[in-house]
Amino acid sequence: MQPMTQTAPSASALPPEIARRRTFAIISHPDAGKTTLTEKFLLFGGAIQMAGQVRAKGEARRTRSDFMQMEKDRGISVSASAMSFEYGTYRFNLVDTPGHSDFSEDTYRTLTAVDAAVMVIDGAKGVESQTQKLFEVCRLRDLPILTFCNKMDRESRDTFEIIDEIQENLAIDVTPASWPIGVGRDFLGCYDILHDRLELMDRADRNRVAESISINGLDDPKLADHIPAPMLAKLREEVEMARELMPTFDHKAVLEGTMTPIWFGSAINSFGVKELMDGIAQFGPEPQTQSASPRNIAADEKKVMGFVFKVQANMDPKHRDRVAFVRLASGHFERGMKLTHVRTKKPMAITNPVLFLASDRELAEEAWAGDIMGIPNHGQLRIGDTLTEGEAISVTGIPSFAPELLQNVRAGDPMKAKHLEKALMQFAEEGAAKVFKPSIGSGFIVGVVGALQFEVLASRIELEYGLPVRFEPSQFTSARWVTGPKDKVEAFVKANPQHISTDHDGDVVFLTRLQWDIDRVLRDHPELTLSATKEMV
Ligand code: G4P
């Protein structure tokens, strides 16, 4: 397959190796077709040879465990990863986001590591709840968004209606990059508005790229050779109307995140995928400046800087390793480099970084700004940490969420309390849950953002530590981190032992079930601050 754009944009001020990188995530509601689209990306990126491979590998892995069984049963993807592949002269880094709403914390953080997002919607369902939530996070960061309206081979909504719904619900300008011809069983393909081409879907072979026919505008008589007259009349009328009613493509607005181009297609039939990939290559932004303190990091800086946006423990249960996913913000990294771990001010030799190519890992000999590297470590690297060549600079904007649900956790076997503590600390460091140790009594309280996370944790603790656990309702419903002058915090802790706990860093947390309690503390202790979230660094 020939990507449309063969050369990296020459207008870029960035070094070519950086300018050719496209680091993005796919956001969608479960079932919209993210997995299918990812698979086609990998197929067209030459990372896999055959569609079905990603799923097949997934299945093989899943049969190993109950936890993965749960993932399979519920149709959710729990373990996020990054995948890199070449597309024409471009290098795509696709960061996978777990799709289920209960894993939003992880998903949100993933979105801090990308420069753009592809929003996949189901043509029959339009904008669904999870898409809306994720979109709002992208909006907070002004991330450029490219939209793919999937499943056009099925009965879908009217094209104008879909576009209107996106505009209305998400408050973003939508410009059609392509226009569907027919729908459901009659879906023929699309008219490529940006390039005046006709793309015809091949229903016989799902892995074949559509036939692309260059035409000379909508009045070109050649169109009649491929499209039955009534459908052609409808297409002409609709595109004319769309051109009148909808904003025209504006690259700057797309980069600023105020306009999204929409492509229509059918991922399962490989249709529209190539156009979308070309769109990412051509319009998707190159690696962007990263916000940091005391100064921002520009992608073209010579020195290597990167930050941890995700930590995944026990990727290989045999080795108990932890992989910190690092987004390179600047520079050219070479294997073996010594970087400074800014939080601890300690040097770290990065000797065995990995790149994730399709579903395999490979030793990374080098990486450039925009790339995602996995750094195996023993727990030194935490979410939000920055690595530099010595400069004391920290990336900002990695969100931490207030735990909204609290439960007590107990080991099935009371003799195993120490093991449980170890497992919980591990997940706390991964950012998978907040763990509080009450100052009175034994046991732990776990805080999560979504209820399903309790089940995932219980399964992981059992699987990875051989430890059956029970989650039980807690008397508390809210957690607040307490900060203030040291003596005041200590006095407060002493006076309220029944409400006090510490998190995995040893920081003081006030637990309660009443907003009234929180108001009381704030009123009686104006020198203290109670925060619902804690900075990641
Ligand atoms: P997700 O990762 O967003 O959850 O979605 P996924 O790709 O798993 O797709 C969800 C379902 O939609 C799958 O069907 C998939 O085959 C189907 N699908 C994806 N793209 C298209 C498309 O363009 N057209 C049509 N008609 N269907 C599509 P399933 O029955 O749940 O799974 P499977 O048995 O096909 O694997």
UniProtKB/TrEMBL annotation:
Residues reported to bind GTP: 28-35, 96-100, 150-153
Subcellular location: Cytoplasm
CDD domains referenced in this protein's UniProt entry, alphabetically: RF3, RF3_III
UniProt xrefs under SUPFAM superfamilies: EF-G C-terminal domain-like, P-loop containing nucleoside triphosphate hydrolases, Translation proteins
Alphabetized UniProt keyword annotations: Cytoplasm, GTP-binding, Nucleotide-binding, Protein biosynthesis
PROSITE patterns tied to this protein: G_TR_1 (PS00301), G_TR_2 (PS51722)
GO function term, MF aspect, one: translation release factor activity, codon nonspecific
One Gene Ontology term, aspect cellular component: cytosol
Annotated Tr-type G domain residues: 19-288
Chief location: cytoplasm
Biological process annotations from GO: regulation of translational termination
Similarity comment: family membership: Belongs to the TRAFAC class translation factor GTPase superfamily. Classic translation factor GTPase family. PrfC subfamily.
NCBIfam families cross-referenced by the UniProt entry: prfC, PRK00741.1, small_GTP
Function: Increases the formation of ribosomal termination complexes and stimulates activities of RF-1 and RF-2. It binds guanine nucleotides and has strong preference for UGA stop codons. It may interact directly with the ribosome. The stimulation of RF-1 and RF-2 is significantly reduced by GTP and GDP, but not by GMP.
Name by which UniProt lists this protein: Peptide chain release factor 3
